Amino acid sequence: MLQTDRLQFKPFHSNYEAALENLCCENELVMKTTLKSRVFTKAEFKALVKDEFIHSEKDSFGFWCVISREDGSLMGISGIHPCHYLERDSHEFGFILHHDYWGQGFATEIGNFWLQHARNQLKLPQLVATVHPNNTASKKVLQKLGLNLITTFTAPERGARCLFCKVLLG
Length: 170
What we know:
This protein has five helices and eight strands.
């Protein structure tokens, strides 16, 4: 099982669907600086769940549901995905947390977990992360985790993004 002291990473389950839909389709505060830089339509959300979420603990890449170990509530989503930015293949990690969990160190805890998991279990040579230029809190988390700002660019589906990178092996 993938977990930290306070969190568990679980595959998508229908028990989480309503909370996930609320986060992705209705929470403008959270979604304005993630993924599409806006809330998802219901159809986009269904496609996201079908195509991008982890559905089995045997899967390695995709979104996991971030669950509180204290009370079992859905806190957000996180995971590692193959990506292609600036003419290079890599793997990107990210996290989207409901705003009730901001400012409590969860993003740093998630980031440390994925960096260790990517190096020790997945044997990835590096991880990248992208963040909206206005998302100061997430940029600080990435810098705290030891990622370096590489550049700012515009992604077709996501708009302006700052690209951060950390070498894990080599």
